[in-house]
Amino acid sequence: MKCLRRIILMGTVDHVEPHLFSPEGKTAPTTFKCAFATEGRVMEYRIEVFSGKIIREELIDATKGRNKCIFDRRPGEVCAIGIDIADNCPEEELKYAVKMGTSLPDKEVFMTTIMKLQVSAFLADAELCHKWFAETLCIIEADSRRVGLGLDLLTQLSSYSSALADADTGVEKLQFHEVDTNIEDMVSLHILSEFKNSDTNVLVVPNDHSMLLVKEDTGIKAIKCYSAYSAADGTETIIPLAKESDGTRRYLHLLPILLDKQRDRVYLVDELDRSLHTTLSRSLIRSFRRIVERKERKLQLIFTTHDVILMEGDNLRKDEIWVTERDEVHQAHLISMAEYKDIRPDNQLRKSYLEGRMGGLPNMNCCV
Length: 368
Prior knowledge:
This protein is an alpha+beta fold. It contains twelve helices and 15 strands. Among the domains are: 2-138, no CATH class; 149-244, no CATH class.
């Protein structure tokens, strides 16, 4: 998904490494296909690349299963235009769209070019899809850190403090304190100059996401977020967030999933349970479910995990759990647990999985 998004946002195809163990990988194109819901429609985007070139690019409106072609571009051939587009587009605009799709270099992405050159025949559809990949899709890697965390903390300090306290991390609250430091040592003179001349009043320090530069009447000051703890004698101890445990920091960087209320999102999280206790992972999932059930936002959470306990109880339905299974040439395949009709969606699910009835288990033949 990161590779697909990069291709769309950059507008060009760079080197895409094929599957190294697949015999077809060296001679056949790599195909990316993504279907997504956005603004009441279901769109399907497909692109095939091989040896740094686009072999095929296609956009389909799949709303209510109608599968109407918007464009189907294959370099070296005349770009195909959907019937609905052709019937409702002025002739000159249609000719221009076909010419652009046909003559575009095979390294350049047509959907991105449509936006750059304002090709009106497809513009509304292209903008809709581009916006989904640029703004709705949010990919969180196992070791990623939210760049704008400091700004989140500043604007929603009480919410983040309460979330950490409720999760029994030991942190009672979060606080911002001024830092006595040379600001020019924290950011480059170029960035500092731009910040001074901008309308922005807060700047996140690039190398420390918990530190901010804030404009005031007296000048610019640096503030940093700290965790506060109370000792038995009633005294308070504060420590920088950087000194918190990896689990607390991981949880803190995942909290925007629950607290970001700005827009609809599709979150892809690699290793949701990394450094987190099972109860904390389950709490995240349940809190996410409550937000969706209250229809506060349109959200989807897709995550990978090795924590099989998350299969239990009411965390996930059978049709929401997919197991990865390697074949003889080391290619991973996804298998939905909904395919196993004889397994009840209660504690038998984890038991059946660990017994090897669904695949997806490592083949351990090591000697101790």
